[in-house]
């Protein structure tokens, strides 16, 4: 008996917290002995359990060895392929699937954080029934699946009115099944996903002839002019577009990128030229550009008829007039026109927050027309591969209307949170409470609202019953890409709780009602049969071998990335549209609202993931919660100081957020990231201190000619609130002070010779004389290269590092004390660079900063106990056990990359399941820092040893390098002259930070950023 | 002792008076003494509970942050080591130079030294993330063959401070022996008899003993003298050996030593003024002594001021942007008050001592000495804190978090120091009987009542 307890404890310890120490046999026996002693002396445990060793073992599971499952990310609709690393049955990390042509092995911050949705400590663990409402929120009670199914079946069978399933933007398998459900059971499907660029899709219909968002190829363009589409952050396929952008930027002929948006977004920060128009006046810029293209004879893509009509429309649009309307200097306007007309291939994009106004269509249409006339369709714009968003605010509005009028009996919500993300002004909550009129005085059966959700979000809180569905990492499915590729989803681990796949729930609902949606009894079988059927059209076979190999690969990937030619069909309607400035403040000086999705919270779905909350926003560097970006003039006029609480008010509601005062928003707007201010959804989401959601500010209106919401442009006032201190940023100083940390190479026209910019030291490879004997590295010398020209600042690496290395999340208060723990940070600097005409333009630099593993490390000699030392592979190693915590190493670190454990940080249960067992968890009072993912180095060396060879270039990929969407990071052996990192370290743009001042000899080389001189 | 003092006010101090005045201090304490002791113990309790809370809750309870790894605790450490300086300077160096003004003050200065080192020594441990492993800084043999890093200035600190403590404590004790014997001879209670009996090491006032004693004292004085220079030099290397702009400066060792003497003398003045008042030592500690200490303060203030100017000059001369920025930041940056406060206290205010009247103005000196103590604390704070807030990478610039725990521990340190001082003045002679007598005209046999004390006082039994 005693022995069994020991077994249980010891093995559980080993499985759960093997990360604490690398358990040696001796240590294991010590632990087992100690546990035995504890077991022998412990008080009687009434729940004593017998366990049996698994003599045969699970075939594919070897303790200590990772098992990887390919799947598909469902966080946004890009459909990136992912690989989930599991250890002893638990998912511990998500990485990009290199087989997927969408993301080519990379993964953004949001995608990686899906793991914290799986391990959300506030997940719904079993079916729930609402028993009563209280002022602090409804009270739910656990029930059985059968009870809810029974209620639902009852309601469906008795329903005489509409039955509606309100879903998010469902992908592939779910959507197919949902379509069957609506067909067979008479359900109506309404789709609501706030992130879908539905207006863009509509504009495609008007100009290209097909509804949908085309696939773009930035890497094939020489000039990209972008009206607000944040393609490096949340728009379209961020990983894929970032990769294309970066591939071009570091090529011999980098694309020139002009960004036109009233707010400096992360995407805009990466532009060569950022122009700050009045919100709503962008359409005039587009019109001016069309006029210029006609003037300059760049109308090849247009029919004569279209050309003459456009000539008519653009008549009299002069640079002076447009300057007055937009606030953009006419020299810059002409410059952009020049860029576009000179480029053989270009790309004009429009989207994002700038096109979420009451009248977005004119701008979107003109952007498409520019693509047509410049001949970009078929070159950089693929109108054959369209993503067709189904989300429809107008249908949601209709649904709300129907519910209000008692026309809906049964409402099922699945994977969408309209109570949070749909404007309050439409009255979703009120309407939902009138589903079936709840039997009020009608003598009818009360209506039924069932939420299918993983988290008890605002919408689920309103439901009568909540059915817990699997998160994407526990579920089957497939996603069909615009390119035709099919990406498969498979569970990486079994359900943690009593949850079911959304697909299975739909199948069961139908079968209970006596219908069969598909021949497959379960969703996994359905996915398999559908996939094989779809694949057979693309050369797959129906064999089990093919199925298995597809699962291993992650799907069926056959697309080549080539842009299909297409013939746009411009609708005559576009020639009768009004291209004036319709969105503008009622009075001069009035403010307009400008909400935008951020890489941190996206539309709000990442709000309960501590990694994402503590991730520093790349532009503002703020953590935990949202903020309002306010121009200094506005702040001055309203007596607002940095960090003061402000009340942002529209006719429809108000939001209390801290102020972030910045010159990088247009004077006329107040920009707020959406996705925060949850009233439900979990402990992290509700603890940000924000009062009200941004969506509560939106009017009850739909955009003109488009099925999209009016988010931007509402008249808004900003008042000083009562508090302050809600704004916590991890970087308080934005200037480099001329210290040449992040350097830039300025280039003039495409293909022109490189010219050294402010950095000027790129390509300097002098070997300074050293006073002391230099270190020897017998076998390897690990090093890294960071290409600033490719880094967009997206911060995916930061989350990867956090996930891989068990870096604690410490919370807003501790971050405000300057004690965040991230080993890797993205430094963001605002500096200026000269322009051709002698002026100055803003230059934003993003600089990933991690331990530089200096060969002359200042941290090493000062440690009194050798807790940090230099190893023979050129790394600055850290012995946690030996550290006494003098913090001298941190003081002496010139790069300030060491992090101290000020407190004992622990994950709450469930989030603690994510901990990487290969990495030691640190305790209070010790120093830690980037190790170049030494556990991966050790693993690669082990494998190489088994193979009887040395580690080769590419064997080792630290987490940050692995996930980087733009491959800005490269890791390898500096001793091997042929390794990629060696070559990059000798690149003409390469330099080492502070090395020429301090002779620290970092192992990390940076490559100058590249900017066109505007 | 059937001594009766019939001398007039202006009469010269006699041997007997010395004995009476000094040993009177050891008489059973009054209410004031207990009040003082309990105040100190109360402060100590605040400090101890703050420290325990910090250990229990996590080091984050202190105000440190990223990038400011060192703050109040190291400031306190340097401050107390600095205080500890003047004791040895006054007792050893001035002894070797035969400076006459040292006699009445050196005992107190030595006591202050020992207790200040005892206080200072706590801070490196308090400031550790894992104080329970402080032992690892010691080079002790172990089966892992793991030694500390002899290149680290923090390890030099361990040696420097522990050596200084050992030597100054020994020197202090040796100096005490004849006086303890004198106290022993007058002891009335059992406890005191036992205490003095043991600690006087059988001192019988014999010629041979005096001969050995004087030789030993000279040797210890010679031995302690280099330590005056070495300890604070080593402490300054904690900073100078780093590459932090504002720390990395070759001027630091002499600059720190001068500052230490400056602050130490000021602390002696702070302590001795109330003591002199409380125990009516006016005839032993006279304006002459204050005048001499004032001159020492004025001189060291000049050295410190010169060091400050040199720092700025070198920062400019180095043409190093990081240094220049740091030295621009100190007077004109966010924390300019700390810099200008220091400048006023250490450089400007002491200049009033050029006025002779003020050098012997006791209330003025007391106020001045408090200001200098504050100024010297600020100096260390400026060096440590201001340098760390603005290092190489602007993205990592940061600030400090005010913390009550640090205040508690700082207060506790004064309580700890005060407790030892308070106990000391009641249990041991705080003014050296023997050495005072050395500077008095020796009583002559035929001059009357003093006669049996010539041979007698200390050794009398």
Task: Describe this protein's structure.
The complex is a heterodimer of chains A (1014) and B (461). Chain A is of the alpha/beta class. Helix content of chain A is 27%, strand content 20%. Chain A is built from 31 helices and 40 strands. In chain A, strands 5-4-16-15-14-6-7 form a seven-stranded mixed β-sheet, with helices on both faces. A six-stranded mixed β-barrel of chain A has the order 20-25-22-24-23-26. In chain A, strands 11-10-9-12 form a four-stranded parallel β-sheet. In chain A, β1 and β2 form a beta hairpin. The longest helix of chain A has 17 residues, at 25-41. Residues 1-23, 38-45 and 750-763 of chain A have low confidence and may be disordered. By secondary structure, chain B is mostly helical. In chain B, α9 (252-278) packs antiparallel against α14 (362-389). The longest helix of chain B is centred in the middle third of the chain and has 34 residues, at 153-186. Chains A and B meet through β31, α27 and β35 of A and α6 and α11 of B.
Brief summary of the model shown:
With 1014 residues, chain A is of the alpha/beta class. Helices cover 27% and strands 20% of the residues of chain A.
**What is the third-level CATH name, the topology of the largest domain in chain A?**
Alpha-Beta Plaits
Give the overall shape of chain B: globular
Which oligomerization state do the chains in this entry correspond to? heterodimer
The percent of residues in helical segments of chain B reads 55-70%
Count of separate DSSP helical elements of chain A: 31
CATH architecture of the largest domain in chain A: 2-Layer Sandwich
Largest interface: A-B, 55 and 51 residues
Number of strands of chain A: 40
Distance between the termini of chain A: 78 Å
Gap between N and C termini of chain B: 10 Å
Q: What portion of the residues of chain A fall into strands of 2 or more residues?
A: 15-25%
What is the count of structural domains of chain A?
5
């Amino acid at each position: 008996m005693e022995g069994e307890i020991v077994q249980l404890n010891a093995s559980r310890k080993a499985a759960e917290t093997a990360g604490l120490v690398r358990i040696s046999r001796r240590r294991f026996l010590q632990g087992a002995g100690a546990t035995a002693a504890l077991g022998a002396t412990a008080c009687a445990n009434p729940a004593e359990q017998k366990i049996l060793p698994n003599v045969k073992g699970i075939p594919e599971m070897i303790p200590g060895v990772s098992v990887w499952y390919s799947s598909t990310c469902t966080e946004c609709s890009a459909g990136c392929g992912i690989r989930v690393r599991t250890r002893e049955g638990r998912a511990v990390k998500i990485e990009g699937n290199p087989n997927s042509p969408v993301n080519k092995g990379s993964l953004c911050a949001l995608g990686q954080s899906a793991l914290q949705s799986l391990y959300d400590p506030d997940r719904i663990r079993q079916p729930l029934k609402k028993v009563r409402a209280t002022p602090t929120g409804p009270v739910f009670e656990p029930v059985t699946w059968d009870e809810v199914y029974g209620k639902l079946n009852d309601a469906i069978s008795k329903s005489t009115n509409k039955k509606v399933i309100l879903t998010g933007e469902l992908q592939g398998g779910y959507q197919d099944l949902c379509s069957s459900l609506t067909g067979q059971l008479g359900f109506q499907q309404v789709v609501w996903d706030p992130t879908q660029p539905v207006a863009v899709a509509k504009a495609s219909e008007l100009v290209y002839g097909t509804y949908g968002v085309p696939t773009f190829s930035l890497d094939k363009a020489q000039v990209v002019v972008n009206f607000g589409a944040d393609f490096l952050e949340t728009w379209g396929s961020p990983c894929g577009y970032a990769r294309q952008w970066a591939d071009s930027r570091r090529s011999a002929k980098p694309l020139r990128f002009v960004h036109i948006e009233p707010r400096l977004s992360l995407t805009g920060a990466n532009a060569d030229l950022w122009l700050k128009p009045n919100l709503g006046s962008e359409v005039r810029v587009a019109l001016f550009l069309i006029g210029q293209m006609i003037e300059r004879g760049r109308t090849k893509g247009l029919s004569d008829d279209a050309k003459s009509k456009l000539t008519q429309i653009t008549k009299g649009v002069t640079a002076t007039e447009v300057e007055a309307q937009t606030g953009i200097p006419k020299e810059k306007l002409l410059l952009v026109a020049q860029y576009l007309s000179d480029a053989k291939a270009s790309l004009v994009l429009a989207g994002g927050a700038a096109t979420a106004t009451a009248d977005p269509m004119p701008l979107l249409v003109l952007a498409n027309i520019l693509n047509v006339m410049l001949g970009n369709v078929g070159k950089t714009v693929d109108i054959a591969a369209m993503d067709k968003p189904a989300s429809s605010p107008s249908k949601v509005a209709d649904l709300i209307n129907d519910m209000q009028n008692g026309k809906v009996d049964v409402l099922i919500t699945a994977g969408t949170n309209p109570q949070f993300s749909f404007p309050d002004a439409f009255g979703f909550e009120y309407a939902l409470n009138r589903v079936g009129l709840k039997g009020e005085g009608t003598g009818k059966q009360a209506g039924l609202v069932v939420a299918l959700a993983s988290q008890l979000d605002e919408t689920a809180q309103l439901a009568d019953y909540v059915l817990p569905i699997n998160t994407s990492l526990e579920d089957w499915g497939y996603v069909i890409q615009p390119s035709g590729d099919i990406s498969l989803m498979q569970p990486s681990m079994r359900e943690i709780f009593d949850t079911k796949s959304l697909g299975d729930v739909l199948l069961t609902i139908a079968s209970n009602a006596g219908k069969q949606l598909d021949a497959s009894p379960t969703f996994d079988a359905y996915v398999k049969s559908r996939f094989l059927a779809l694949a057979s059209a693309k050369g797959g076979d129906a064999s089990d071998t093919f199925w298995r190999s597809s699962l291993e690969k992650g799907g069926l990937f056959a697309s080549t990335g080539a842009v299909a030619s297409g013939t746009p069909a411009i609708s005559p309607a576009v020639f009768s549209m009004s291209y004036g400035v319709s969105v503008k403040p009622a009075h001069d000086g009035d403010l307009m609202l400008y909400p935008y999705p951020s890489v941190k919270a996206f539309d709000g779905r990442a709000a309960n993931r501590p990694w994402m909350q503590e991730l520093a926003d790349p532009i503002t560097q703020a953590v935990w919660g949202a903020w309002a970006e306010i121009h200094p003039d506005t702040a001055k006029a309203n007596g607002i100081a940095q960090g003061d609480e402000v009340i942002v008010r529209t006719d429809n509601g108000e939001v209390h957020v801290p102020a972030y005062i910045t010159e990088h928003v247009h004077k006329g707007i107040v920009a707020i990231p959406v996705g925060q201010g949850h009233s439900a959804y979990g402990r992290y989401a509700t603890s940000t201190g924000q009062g009200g959601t941004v969506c509560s500010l939106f009017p009850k209106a739909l955009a003109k000619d488009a099925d999209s919401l009016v988010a931007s442009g509402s008249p808004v006032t900003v008042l000083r609130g009562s508090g302050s201190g809600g704004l916590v940023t991890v970087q308080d100083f934005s200037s480099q002070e001329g210290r040449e940390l992040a350097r830039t190479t300025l280039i003039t026209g495409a293909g022109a010779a490189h010219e050294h910019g402010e950095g000027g030291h790129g390509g300097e490879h002098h070997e300074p004389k050293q006073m002391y004997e230099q270190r020897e590295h017998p076998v390897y010398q690990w090093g890294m290269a960071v290409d600033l020209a490719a880094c967009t600042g997206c911060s995916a690496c930061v989350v990867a590092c956090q996930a891989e290395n068990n870096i604690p999340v410490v919370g807003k208060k501790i971050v405000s004390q300057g004690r965040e723990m991230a080993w890797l940070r993205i430094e963001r600097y605002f500096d200026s660079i000269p322009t051709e005409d002698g002026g100055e333009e803003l230059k934003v630099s993003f600089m990933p900063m991690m331990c530089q593993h200096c060969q002359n490390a200042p941290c090493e000699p000062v440690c009194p106990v050798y807790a940090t030392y230099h190893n023979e592979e050129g790394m600055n190693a850290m012995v946690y056990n030996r550290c006494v915590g003098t913090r001298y190493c941190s003081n002496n670190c010139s790069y300030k990359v060491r992090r101290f454990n000020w407190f004992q940080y622990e994950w709450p249960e469930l989030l603690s399941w994510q901990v990487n067992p290969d990495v030691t968890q640190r305790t209070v009072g010790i120093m830690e820092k980037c190790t170049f993912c030494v556990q991966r180095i050790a693993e690669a060396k082990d494998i190489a040893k088994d193979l009887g060879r040395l580690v080769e270039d590419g064997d080792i990929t630290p987490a940050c390098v692995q996930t980087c969407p733009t491959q800005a990071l490269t890791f390898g052996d500096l001793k091997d002259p042929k390794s990629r990192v060696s070559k990059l370290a000798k690149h003409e743009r390469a330099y080492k930070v502070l090395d020429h001042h301090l002779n620290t000899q970092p192992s990390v080389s940076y490559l100058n950023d590249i900017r066109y001189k505007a | 002792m059937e001594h009766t003092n019939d001398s007039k006010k202006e009469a010269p101090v006699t041997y007997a008076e010395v004995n009476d005045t000094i040993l009177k201090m050891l008489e059973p304490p009054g209410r004031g003494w207990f009040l003082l002791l309990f105040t100190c113990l109360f402060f100590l309790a605040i400090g101890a509970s703050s420290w325990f809370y910090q250990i229990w809750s996590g080091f984050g309870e202190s105000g440190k942050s990223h990038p400011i790894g060192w703050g109040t605790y190291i400031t306190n450490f340097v401050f107390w080591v600095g205080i500890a300086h003047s004791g040895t300077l006054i007792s050893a160096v001035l002894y070797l130079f035969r400076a006459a003004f040292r006699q009445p003050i050196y005992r107190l200065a030595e006591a202050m030294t020992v207790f200040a080192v005892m206080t200072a020594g706590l801070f490196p441990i308090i400031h550790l993330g894992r104080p329970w492993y402080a032992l690892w800084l010691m080079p002790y043999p172990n089966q892992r063959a793991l030694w500390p890093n002899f290149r680290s200035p923090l390890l030099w600190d361990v040696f420097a401070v522990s050596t200084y403590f050992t030597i100054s404590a020994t020197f202090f004790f040796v100096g005490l022996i004849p006086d303890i014997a004198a106290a022993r001879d007058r002891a009335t209670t059992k406890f005191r008899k036992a205490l003095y009996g043991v600690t006087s090491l059988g001192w019988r006032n014999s010629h041979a003993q005096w001969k050995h004693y004087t030789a030993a004292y000279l040797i210890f004085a010679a031995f302690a003298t280099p330590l005056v220079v070495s300890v604070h030099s080593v402490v300054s290397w904690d900073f100078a050996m780093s590459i932090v702009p504002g720390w990395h400066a070759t001027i630091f060792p002499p600059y720190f030593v001068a500052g230490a003497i400056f602050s130490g003398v000021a602390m002696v003045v702070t302590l001795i003024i109330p003591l002199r008042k409380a125990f009516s030592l006016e005839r032993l500690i006279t304006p002459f002594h204050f005048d001499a200490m004032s001159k020492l303060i004025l001189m060291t203030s000049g050295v410190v001021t010169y060091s400050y100017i040199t720092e700025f000059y070198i920062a400019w001369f180095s043409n190093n942007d990081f240094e220049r920025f740091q030295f621009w930041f100190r007077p004109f940056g966010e924390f300019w008050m700390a810099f200008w406060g220091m400048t006023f206290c250490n450089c400007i205010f002491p200049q009033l001592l050029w006025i002779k009247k003020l050098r012997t103005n006791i209330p003025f000196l007391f106020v001045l000495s408090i200001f200098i103590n504050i100024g010297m604390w600020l100096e260390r704070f400026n060096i440590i804190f201001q340098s760390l807030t603005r290092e190489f990478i602007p993205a990592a610039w940061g600030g400090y978090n005010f913390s009550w725990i640090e205040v508690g521990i700082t207060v506790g340190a004064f309580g700890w120091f005060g407790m030892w001082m308070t106990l000391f003045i009641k249990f041991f002679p705080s003014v050296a009987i023997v050495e005072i007598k050395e500077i008095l005209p020796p009583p002559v046999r035929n001059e009357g009542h003093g006669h049996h004390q010539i041979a007698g006082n200390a050794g009398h039994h």
